[in-house]
Amino acid sequence: MQKAICLQAIVPIRREPSEPGEMVTQLLFGETVSVIENNIQWMRVTCDYDNYSGWCDSKCLSIISEDDYRQLSETNYAVTSMLFAPIIEITKPSIYWLPAGATFYFTKKEEFSIAGSTFKAPDQMTLSTNERIENLAQSFINVPYIWGGRSSFGADCSGFIQTVFKIYKTRLPRDAYQQAGCGESVDSFSEAKSGDLLFFENSVKKIVHVGMLLPNNQIVHASGKIRIDTVDQQGIYNTELSKYTHQLSLIRRITLY
User: Any catalytic annotation for residue 246?
Assistant: First the structure.
């Protein structure tokens, strides 16, 4: 199957092969895809990271050979933890601003060469080994909410959580209901710990929202923007609106790799 790589900061993946089509997710720099269908202008692709599928403008991706893909699979990589990380494309030269969650492969010292381009990494782009995941999650506060987004330029609730865990090289599926099947169940809110994932349901008991528990009964989540609200066994209480906005359904604890 033909492979391609995203060498732009962010590339939208749409439900249909058209510019007005709904963006269902995004590819971040360094992520690879399997090309399912290619009609020259549009490609139907599946992201190798989370098996999410959709349509992408063909101009936004770079086709790579099986040998290049195999090399990437066997190469050490880093995931950016900086909200906005500059990298230099040496072959142009030009500067790209990458979002948190972008992937950089160290094919040479601080360099990454693929599909005819060579990129140089910033001096500090990766996570401190002692950084707690809930602290990293809070660094995203005020990032705007974007349906289908999964980066520090804009994210939806599950895209935000997926990317935070990606920085820790812990793979989660794309959507909240899928993430709700990961990790270990926590029986009650009183047993939950900071860093646990809280999932919320709609009126027909479908999981539609996710956030991360913080100390002192707070939660960081994407709702209008990435924000912190109060949470309890009933759900999320928005002090600005003076009401509960999300009903708690279940709690999961994810082990970091």
Answer: no
The single residue of 6, 47, 56, 209 carrying the catalytic annotation is: 209
pLDDT of 127 reads 54
Strands (E), 50-187: 53-57, 61-64, 77-79, 84-89, 94-99, 103-105, 111-114, 117-120, 150-151, 154-155, 184-186
Q: Which residues of the chain have pLDDT under 50?
A: none
pLDDT for res 112: 85
The structure tokens 């909410």 sit at 145
221 belongs to the catalytic site: yes
Domain range list for the chain? 3-120, 133-138+163-253
Any idea what DSSP says for residue 145?
B
**Active-site option among 6, 47, 221, 246:** 221
pTM: 0.94
**Right CATH for 3-120 from 3.40.50.300, 2.70.40.10, 3.30.1330.10, 2.30.30.40:** 2.30.30.40
What confidence tens digit (pLDDT) does each residue in 80-117 have?
A: 888 998 888 998 889 989 999 999 887 667 788 888 88
Domain 133-138+163-253 belongs in CATH node 3.60.140.10? no
Which of 6, 47, 56, 157 does the annotation list as catalytic? Answer: 157
